[in-house]
Amino acid sequence: MTIARGRKSGTLYKTKRACHLIAVAMNENPNLWHRRLGHMSEKGMRIMHSKGKLPSLRSIEFDMCEDCILGKQKRVSFQRSGRIPKKERLELVHSDVWGPTTVSSIGGK
């Protein structure tokens, strides 16, 4: 089954149609479009809307989603105090150990 045809340009396939395949899925929900566009900012969606790339949207305003909030959190850095430099190789070794697990992989193993 062929959904669309296009020429490869770098890592993208460009179609010749003015109405791209994504516009076929008409929906007026700006929250859904925010997720579809990889959690694009409201400003970015306004620019796309002004260029006619989001014709189904009447409003660009959307709620801040939980994924965006969590993605903007900053990580706490490790403490540097009390650190003693090691003189020999393998004097101090760190490793992560996990398992056995009851969760199956995608392959079922």
Quickly describe the structure.
With 109 residues, the protein is mainly alpha-helical.
Word description of this protein:
A hairpin with a 2-residue loop joins strand 1 (7-9) and strand 2 (12-14). This protein has a two-stranded antiparallel ribbon. The protein has a domain at 8-61. It starts with 6 loop residues before the first strand and ends in a 38-residue tail after the last helix. 20% of the residues lie in helices and 6% in strands. The chain contains 3 helices and 2 strands. The chain has helices at residues 30-36, 42-50, 66-71, and strands at residues 7-9, 12-14. With 109 residues, it is mainly α.
Name the features.
two-stranded antiparallel ribbon, 109 residues, mainly alpha, 20% helix, single chain, 2 strands
Main sheet properties = 2 strands, antiparallel
E-strand count = 2
Instruction: Please tell me what the overall shape is.
Output: elongated
| Measured distance between first and last alpha carbons | 32 Å
In terms of quaternary structure, the protein is single chain
Number of helices: 3
Order of helices and strands: EEHHH
Estimate the strand proportion: 5-15%
The percent of residues in helical segments reads: 10-25%
pLDDT under 50 segments (min length 5)?
none
Q: How confident overall, as mean pLDDT?
A: 78
Q: In which order are the strands of the major sheet placed?
A: 1-2
SS-derived structural category: mainly alpha
Radius of gyration from the alpha-carbon trace, in angstroms: 24 Å
Domain GAG-pre-integrase: 22-73
InterPro entries: GAG-pre-integrase_dom, Retrotran_Ty1/copia-like
Pfam families: gag_pre-integrs
Protein name: GAG-pre-integrase domain-containing protein
